[in-house]
Amino acid sequence: GFYNEWSGMGCAQTPQTQCGFPPEMSRRRWTILLRLRAELGPLSSPWVHTPPFVVDRNTTLGPPKVNSVSVSPDSLLISLSPPFTPEPGEPLQYLVSYWENSSSPTVKKLNQSKTLFQIENLKESTLYCFSVQVQLKIYSGHLLQGEQSAPECHRTALS
């Protein structure tokens, strides 16, 4: 049910224009309503309410971190870390876009759940670029798409 009681977020009377969520508010499926007002000495504005916020649905997923890239003549082996720790059984997928760094690149995509993966069938001694993002399927069947990592380019080895 709805509670008519407002809880503080630990950042009342602050000059800051932002405020972090307390950990207990990051329950994934809760619908959270926030309210705020401006105060100046004894004056205060009316309360304004935010649209409902659901962590699962309204959070922006950052890009995964690229830990290392190993090159061989025909492949790149890429090691990633997720942008957050997934809960057990959470189907976090990595979507990898890669292309040959040429004048008319064709982007190819790979989708997989492992943090270590190989982009195969590449030409030797050729510069390839890639970018990675995460996809998370949440309980409602809704697919959350994360932000893309900045493109990184590596030259395959000479055989």
TrEMBL record:
What Gene3D superfamilies has UniProt attached to this entry?
Immunoglobulins
Q: Which CDD domains match?
A: FN3
Q: Where is the Fibronectin type-III domain?
A: 60-159
Q: Check the record and name the PROSITE patterns matching this protein.
A: FN3
Which is one GO molecular function term here?
cytokine receptor activity
One GO cellular component term noted in the UniProt record for this chain: plasma membrane
Q: Say which domain of life the source belongs to.
A: Eukaryota
List the protein's name. Answer: INGR2 protein
Which gene name belongs to this protein? Ifngr2
